[in-house]
């Protein structure tokens, strides 16, 4: 089966819009604004995320602290640059990182540290290529998650796919143990 190439992801803002619309598959429940989040009555921990690559982010925010956290975040960044996602079950992380197609197959940068990805990769990062990268992914991602990863890599050539894989199903699409956090052109 041939997959049609999709429109490249050129900016973080473009990615976030397409991510929230579900274009990249299983994701964290996400709200574009504080008002959307508040109206949802979501009671779990959340993550205030930034549309600016590498910019400050706020993890593990409980609902009762969300208004104060949002006010702090919007004192540093325009609210148009921020969005909110449910916190993933990082204590159940199996593997997470970034993968892309390289000259010799898959190039995988990953960690098994049970923290949000940015913190986990800062603590310990490993690399694998080719058949070893493929083995690590196939042995940790459920069948559906692995098939979707293959689709993303084919549909978005010359892109990096960020993912986190958990011991449990989690995210917006039932039956997946992997959330696809980002797809970006390299």
Mean pLDDT: 95
Question: Which radius of gyration do the C-alpha atoms yield?
Answer: 16 Å
CATH architecture of the largest domain: 2-Layer Sandwich
Fraction of helical residues: 25-40%
Overall geometry: globular
Largest sheet: 5 strands, antiparallel
Structural class: alpha+beta
Number of helices: 6
Strand order of the largest sheet: 7-6-5-8-9
CATH structural class of the largest domain: Alpha Beta
Tell me what portion of residues adopts beta-strand conformation.
Answer: 25-35%
Describe what this molecule looks like in 3D.
By secondary structure, the protein is an alpha+beta fold. The chain is built from six helices and nine strands, in the order αβαββαβββαβααββ.
Features of this protein?
single chain; 186 residues; alpha+beta; D-amino Acid Aminotransferase, Chain A, domain 1; 5-stranded antiparallel sheet; 4-stranded antiparallel sheet; 6 helices; 9 strands; globular
Summarize, please.
The protein has 186 residues and is an alpha+beta fold.
Describe the SSE topology.
Elements (H helix, E strand, L loop, with lengths): L11 H9 L9 E2 L2 H7 L5 E5 L7 E4 L1 H14 L5 E5 L6 E10 L2 E7 L5 H7 L2 E4 H11 L2 H13 L3 E8 L11 E8 L1
Antiparallel strand pairs: 1-4, 2-3, 2-4, 5-6, 5-8, 6-7, 8-9
């Amino acid at each position: 089966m041939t997959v049609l190439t999709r429109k490249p992801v050129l900016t973080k803002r473009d990615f976030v819009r397409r991510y929230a619309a579900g274009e990249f598959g299983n994701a964290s429940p996400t709200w574009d604004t504080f008002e959307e989040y508040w109206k949802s009555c979501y009671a779990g921990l959340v993550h205030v995320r930034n549309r600016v690559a590498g910019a400050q982010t706020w993890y593990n925010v409980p609902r009762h602290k969300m208004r104060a956290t949002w006010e702090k975040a919007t004192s540093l960044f325009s609210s148009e640059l921020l969005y909110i996602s449910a916190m993933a079950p990082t204590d159940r992380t199996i593997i997470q990182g970034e993968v892309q197609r390289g000259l010799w197959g898959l190039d995988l940068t990953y960690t098994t540290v049970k923290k949000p990805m940015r913190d986990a990769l800062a603590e310990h990062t490993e690399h694998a290529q080719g058949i070893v990268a493929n083995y690590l992914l196939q042995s940790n991602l459920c069948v559906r998650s692995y098939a979707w990863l293959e689709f993303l890599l084919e549909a978005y050539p010359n892109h990096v796919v960020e993912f986190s894989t958990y011991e449990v199903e989690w995210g917006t699409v039932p039956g997946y143990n992997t959330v696809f956090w980002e797809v970006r052109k390299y």
